[in-house]
Amino acid sequence: MRRIYGLLGRKLGHSHSPAIHSMLGCRGYRLYELEPEELGAFLRRPDLGAVNVTIPYKRDVFEFVDVVDPAAREIGAINTVVNRRGRLYGWNTDKYGLEYALREAGMDLTGRKVVILGSGGTSHTASAAARALGAGEITVISRSGENNYGNLEKNADAEILINTTPVGMSPNCPAQPVNLRAFPKLSGVMDVVFNPLRTGLLMQAEELGIPRAGGLSMLVAQAKLAEEHFFGKRIEDGRIREIADRLRRDVTNIVLIGMPGSGKTTIGKFLARKTGRELLDVDRAIALRTGKRPGDIITDSGEAEFRRLETEVMREMAAGTGKIITTGGGCVTVPENYPILHQSGRVYRIDRALEELSTRGRPLSAGGIEGLRALFEKRDPLYARFADATVKNDGTLEEAADKIWSDFCENTRT
């Protein structure tokens, strides 16, 4: 009998789970979207092998499971169900995944005050993980409890912060549930959200120099343990990082910024050919949407209107994953664009000598070399602020593309 393996939920949308489990060896892993009344019949299927369980059924499956692991019972949620000779066994592997992500990021919870944002199912998992890792004090922030978002100052001494709410999840990013400046003693921030790779909370932690961890490593780690339960086999922990690195590279966007005429679009085309990724050009998308070239929009309606359209288009593009995005030279003049491009992208500045920049059809680059120099001096610190890396375009455009891809593969690892 061919057995069923997969992820069980109600509205699954895009999920990394099939790709992760395929890399772990379960190539028949599928997504199963069910309504509540279908849950019992599905779990009683004789061909059920094993499933992961996600929202909203992590509690509902208790009534169908014959043997529940003590940790899952303590947390009050089951996310892994395995059929063994007609009996259903249930575990919670999210706790293991969260512990792994915290340890991998170098966060020591021993004796520390841990503040957990959110009071739902994942909050219970985070509390169990924090206890297991030796936290000295654990406080849960909810919307209406004793400790809530209106009296955060009561917990300003937090040392570790764990977000278990969906605030900041794509497409509602870079929203964040709290301002990290309210917690001056923080030595670590964990956000269980894995899409986007960098939530608003994690980007602020990065800005403040606080060690941080996103939800991707947690997702892969819990899948590794689930797979061990599925087939009763040991999987080396090293596979977690290997798979997380591969997944991170696959979903991270490559974003090109730089002065007008620096070669971004053509370099993007070389990258698209080299990688097989889809190329998204912001200026081209604006032209298709409005029927006007960017220069004409600036001339007719002003730069402010063009920047508004530019931000709108970039927000849509950056919500995707695994793309190449080429931007207009002035996108860095709008601070709002930084988190949009950075949330799931590695941003490359294309640096080319001013004398070699193309100015044709570019109204903001008019004025000859002196005009370009004035524009460059204004934008140079902004490019430096936006960029994760700078690539000099001082050879062929194909060579510049090769440099970007080499750096990208190296720097999208954990």
Description:
This protein is α/β, with parallel strands linked by helices and 414 residues long. It folds into three domains: 4-92 and 219-236, 3-Layer(aba) Sandwich (Rossmann fold), CATH 3.40.50; 96-213, Rossmann fold, CATH 3.40.50; 252-411, Rossmann fold, CATH 3.40.50.300. It has helices at 17-24, 39-43, 70-75, 94-104, 121-132, 200-208, 215-231, 238-251, 264-275, 282-290, 294-301, 303-318, 337-342, 368-386, 397-411, and strands spanning 4-9, 29-33, 48-53, 67-68, 80-84, 87-91, 113-117, 137-141, 160-163, 188-191, 212-213, 253-258, 279-281, 324-326, 345-351, 389-392. It has a six-stranded mixed beta sheet with strand order 2-1-3-5-6-4. α14 links the parallel β15 and β16 (389-392). α1 (17-24) crosses α7 and α10 (282-290) packs across α12 (303-318). The protein starts with a strand and ends with a helix. The mean pLDDT is 93.
Query: Separation of termini?
Result: 39 Å
CATH architecture of the largest domain: 3-Layer(aba) Sandwich
The number of helical runs is 15
Q: Show unreliable segments.
A: none
Q: Based on DSSP secondary structure assignment, what is the total number of beta strands? A: 16
Question: Rg from C-alpha positions?
Answer: 24 Å
Q: At the fourth CATH level, what is the homologous superfamily of the largest domain? A: P-loop containing nucleotide triphosphate hydrolases
Q: How is the CATH topology of the largest domain named?
A: Rossmann fold
Classify the secondary structure makeup into a structural class: alpha/beta
Number of domains: 3
- Percent strand equals 15-25%
Sum up the overall morphology in one term: globular
| Order of strands in the sheet with most strands | 2-1-3-5-6-4
Helix residue percentage: 40-55%
Sheet of most strands: 6 strands, mixed
